Amino acid sequence: ENIIGYVVMLMDVTTVVEEERRKEEIIRDLSGPVLTVWDNTLVIPILGIVDKNRFNIILNKLLKQCEIENAENVIIDFVGIKKWNKEIPSQINEMISSLDFMGIQCYLVGINPELARSLASERKMFKVPIFRTTKAAIKHIISLN
Questions:
Q1: To which H or E segment does residue 140 belong?
Q2: Of 5, 28, 78, 86, which residue is most buried, by most CB within 10 angstroms?
Q3: For residue 78, with 0-12 CB atoms within 10 Å meaning exposed, 13-18 middle and 19 or more buried, which class applies?
Q4: What distances in angstroms separate CA 131 from CA 42, 111, 134, one per listed residue?
Q5: pLDDT tens digit string along 65-85?
């Protein structure tokens, strides 16, 4: 009977590990869905809680999608951020710089008052257009064409 108990316990642990792995895959898939909204224009809504690991997943996914879709414009939408770490200003800067090196124009939208204060206190000035909404950024991009 002891052996059977151990086998059952091992199966339970294996099931828990598999479930955790599935959750991580779902989080990776849902982290920063990249949407095509106009010719060569992508939007990436940043949703939920952003930590360093999740930010890296989002950035890698975005850069790959930009290459695949031959993107010229990327709108980064922060309206869905629930919580961020104090590294968010440098992470935003890294994202903007990475896109700039690829020749992609970046637009920031949906910066709420709390994030605005955090960015202002860090004295981060991003040399990219900032709009209140994604719709306003898309209208601007369309007007340039």
A1: helix 134-144
A2: 78
A3: buried
A4: 15, 8, 7
A5: 999 999 999 999 998 887 777
